[in-house]
């Protein structure tokens, strides 16, 4: 059968970031634009072959396919991105001349969130630091803020980066475990190299398993320098503050998610954007006087293993970021985006933090390998929106057709162009290399003495957490060290914990069945900083997932009322029923008991209990592992499992017009915290009230969270 000859294809669009799209045209062609008749059969000598070497289309198609992959990032390989806009409040202009910080300026941007350790296909919900990298396409050139969701780092000097990364990556013999720090080499390094203890503490806390990228803080980690229009310099630390607050998974959810939905965070981000629940952050600065010692209150600002508590230096907000567009092509955008901490604009400069200094070398080097040459800034996702007039020429994948004959400076043949700032008609604001005084010193391989304190901030962080958060930290260390085969390593890490907090050390030692060592280092006690706790305060529920359990017999008006109220409150409602199809009001079922798992929902409304359907077999269905209590014999066992998991995960469950005995029948604790009975009109407001604090932590914590603290009040 012959395929009809198609229309000629659309002209290829030029590569500009303003319009980087390459829509699929109507007519199939080769890469050279020749229209093709057949892409389903190789060219053969007769229907039974052999295949002819002259089939250029076959060879081009397969050769290109063979080269579809580029080397993944050596760290931060697993990521998800989104486009958005930054709107400046103008408050940053007091200390920084950067044009994008002037009042009301809107700057397009692209953000890539990532895990650090795992490879590109690894699961999202692993315990790890998260990357939080933002590319601002400002009118003065690209500014990249390449940060993490934790304010401290494992090492103080870039020369240690290959060491820490080799330790967390899978063991080289068998390449296991993937995307995990729960193994010998990581804890070997961290326990020997105690400057890593503060960052390890953050990773062992709930921050290591975020609920969503939308609910993470971001930190520039290093101290940067800002220069005002009058030349005055300040030292600053960057902070991203999420509108939805900082929230985490519980460990059971993280483990379930990695099996049931390895794309958990990626999906959450793109679903929220699709649903119009656009994630938002405020950008804030901690500003420090640029003093000679570059320190604040005994904290060396050039030491990236330290942070400055908000209680000591409040964060001044300078603008807001909204992410409102998903990438159209993962590879072209999220995979090819190339960040660099040296992509700076006039008014922002680096400091001498030795970790930052090493990063300035590393990123361009890695992009050359990863993106196949030095011209990666010409890729649409990396292309500055400011005019580019460099004298960089040629190289692999050069897409510009440069004109002129004199790409050198000074020249007279191209009329002297391009001019440096201040030459010819170039009066533009140039990048400022701040004329910092370089202290008289001696060349050598050493650290300042102030870098020697490895434990005081880990202790401060731990002691600033709420009781349930501290329990999570104890469990995380116990799990991770319990996965180490070497008892020497476990004992060495316990020694580090003994220097951090005696009770933490004792709790972990108990789990490991090892003796509790005494401290062997004197550690300064710092004031706790409750602002690092995630438990204090309340937040909007925008875009949180509300599961509404309904049967095919639930009245249409009940479903309509609940869904409308959920949408009105800002939730993303998902209808859950025994099987698929449509409910009484015509709404399609979003999840069935076969496809749903507790991890998907932030809270549940039970509009109807679900009776067992054929296929729900208590004995043979692993999802129905929950033993039904006598009162729940009439319930689908998978619903019992869902509710029991949701309960264990300290999430709210609202029984809508259900009998008083509903929760007891399920084997849950009657009317315990977060188990609520409500009428149809009161159901969604009940969920809003409970979700504003993210979880019902009191459920398993007799002391309950400490009342709201002044830091968040
Ligand atoms: Fe990175 N880091 N890093 N890093 N980093 C990379 O660059 C490196 C560090 C961070 O979504 C690589 O393009 C060195 C701190 C993020 O594309 C590489 C050192 C912080 C991302 C690299 C550090 C980060 C990277 C790998 C120690 C938080 C992902 C691929 C001196 C402030 C960006 C790439 C994205 C990626 C090197 C330390 C954040 C190899 C040598 C500290 C968010 O160049």
Automatic annotation (TrEMBL):
Residue span, Catalase core domain: 29-417
InterPro entries in the cross-refs: Catalase, Catalase_AS, Catalase_clade2, Catalase_clade2_helical, Catalase_core, Catalase_haem_BS, Catalase_immune_responsive, Catalase_large_C
Keyword Heme: yes
Reactions it catalyzes: 2 H2O2 = O2 + 2 H2O
Keyword Ribosomal protein: no
Cofactor field: heme
Function comment: Decomposes hydrogen peroxide into water and oxygen; serves to protect cells from the toxic effects of hydrogen peroxide.
Family: Belongs to the catalase family. HPII subfamily.
Protein name: Catalase
